[in-house]
Write a structure and sequence with these properties.
With 128 residues, the protein is α+β, with helices and mostly antiparallel strands. 23% of the residues lie in helices and 42% in strands. The protein is globular and about 45 Å long.
Length: 128
């Protein structure tokens, strides 16, 4: 194994604001994303803010998936971190982006735990 973990930091823009503000939808989306990527879900915690926004985490045996949503801006900040090489964090990240109807997606992929972090250029996908 070349790395102890893989981390995808995802910026999602022009998302469906109703989905970004629906705690039940986001929780299901994140649990499904974890399961689709082959992860084992351990704990789930989500919080709905007033007047809008959701933050949450799905703890998986292999690490975690998190979100902070800003429906008023059509924006979500998503992290998917997986230890080892059995789970592909890109599968979960893509599923989440599609589930939130993101029109613009920016990913930064990091390898973790093997020395200094090398931060690559962000990869931007626009689906307008």
């Amino acid at each position: 194994m070349d790395t102890m973990g893989r981390h995808i930091i995802t910026e999602l823009w022009e998302c469906n604001p109703d989905k970004l503000n629906d705690i039940d939808y986001i929780e299901r989306l994140f649990v499904d994303a974890a399961l689709r990527s082959g992860a084992e879900v351990r704990e789930v915690a989500f919080h709905k803010f007033a007047p809008h926004g959701v933050s949450g985490v799905v703890i998986i045996s292999e690490s975690h998936l998190t979100i902070h949503s800003f429906p008023e801006h059509g924006y979500a900040s998503v992290d998917v971190f997986t230890c080892g090489d059995r789970i592909d964090p890109a599968t979960a990240s893509q599923y989440i982006a599609e589930g939130l109807d993101a029109k613009v997606r920016e990913d930064v992929k990091l390898e973790r735990g093997m020395g200094p972090i090398r931060v690559p250029e962000a990869q931007v996908a626009i689906s307008k």
